[in-house]
Amino acid sequence: MDGVTESLLLAVVVLTALAFDFTNGFHDTGNAMATSIATRALKPKQAVLLSASLNMVGAFLSITVAATIAKGIVDAGVVTLDIVLAGLAGAIIWNLVTWLFGIPSSSSHALIGGVVGAVLAAVGSGGVQWDGLVGKVLVPALVAPAVAILVGTIATSLVTRITRDVPQDSNDRMFRWGQIGSASLVSLAHGTNDAQKSMGIILLALIAAGAVPEDSSVPFWVIVSCALAMAVGTYLGGWRVIRTLGKGLVELESRQGMAAETSSAAVILLSSHFGYSLSTTHVATGSILGSGVGMKGASVRWSVAGRMFLAWLITVPAAAAVGASAYWLGAAVGGAAGSSVVFALLLGVSAVIYLWSRRNPVHHRNVNDEWEPQEDNESIIAEAVVDHDPELLTTHAEQGSER
């Protein structure tokens, strides 16, 4: 491959990595803001704007996780640009599929699975650093949700016990303000962890292309680019996933929301400090489930949680399978043409998933609709008044006419 072709391929890989960061942003917005939106502590658009801003700030605070992704999961010496492109294709496609169905799966594990699958297809098991994969990815994947459920349960139990004699209206008003702070902390923590993953992948690509030495740290322009890509994705809002986390697992009140968000932030920040490539989705979901377990009388939809747990189990192997298939396809075609085919296929699949999603759109106007809709005109009017959003009346009327 000549120098010009390799430079073009490197540019394509960097753009694809930023595209993954974009999908990571809108896929994982719900981790920080779903509970605040569900309890109406923040209006949907305000929530995603706040989350986007703090995600971008968080991306500048640490690069420990980026180093884990670039040098702790696969052998950087065997990685080529074709492998990185195939791995990103696996991650992006899995992200979009789970977003389509509103499943809060792990973008982190999708990325790691895609890259590991591509490496396995290219050079075999010797290219994977199994100790790093198990110790810094798979073990935390099992431990993090359990820890988050425990912390969320304890936090919610303490909060409800302390405020049990406070009138409900006062509780709602007080904790909605508290939720703004706790949701902001989760967004900041999310930026310190998830934005790093694309930085690590781009660093891996730069090393593979010989643009930087193997012991190089993350260039500043990579940090800025990844921070902006995730912030834009976050602002556009992954409303499908936000709806599942905010309405599908537990019917939340403000006390639960604040306890869940604070628990998530504590676990994520601790993992970022030690360089663990933690799934913020697993942590946020575990904290929300814990808020239901810790609240006497709360109802947890375990059937929804069960579907999510199943998706978590298959995320790494599913993304790995797509990443391996993408690599084999590119290798079969060969050269720059093979990489072009993989990139074109990624664009085509992404377009099909997006068009499919438009058949049943979820957006900021209907993200707070009841999980199991009831034909109750009075509740629709009440919701429009509470949200100061008369367009809700029009939206529900249109939905009713379509039925």
Structure explained in plain terms:
The structure is a single chain. This protein is mostly helical and 403 residues long. It folds into two domains: 3-372, no CATH class; 375-403, no CATH class. The chain has 16 helices and no strands. The protein is elongated, with a radius of gyration of 21 Å.
What's this, in brief?
This protein has helices at residues 3-38, 44-58, 64-71, 81-100, 107-123, 130-162, 168-193, 195-208, 220-236, 239-248, 254-274, 280-293, 302-333, 335-357, 377-386, 391-402. By secondary structure, the protein is mainly α. Helix 1 runs antiparallel to helix 7, helix 1 (3-38) packs parallel to helix 12 (280-293) and helix 2 (44-58) runs antiparallel to helix 9 (220-236).
Count of helix runs: 16
Q: Got a strand count? A: 0
Quote the distance from N terminus to C terminus.
57 Å
Task: Encode the helix/strand succession as letters.
Answer: HHHHHHHHHHHHHHHH
- What oligomeric arrangement do these chains adopt? single chain
Question: Which terms would index this structure?
Answer:
16 helices, 403 residues, mainly alpha, elongated, 76% helix, single chain
Secondary-structure map:
Blueprint: H1 3-38, H2 44-58, H3 64-71, H4 81-100, H5 107-123, H6 130-162, H7 168-193, H8 195-208, H9 220-236, H10 239-248, H11 254-274, H12 280-293, H13 302-333, H14 335-357, H15 377-386, H16 391-402
Helix pairs in contact: 1-2, 1-4, 1-7, 1-8, 1-9, 1-10, 1-11, 1-12, 2-7, 2-9, 3-8, 4-5, 4-13, 4-14, 5-13, 6-11, 6-12, 7-11, 8-9, 11-12, 13-14, 15-16
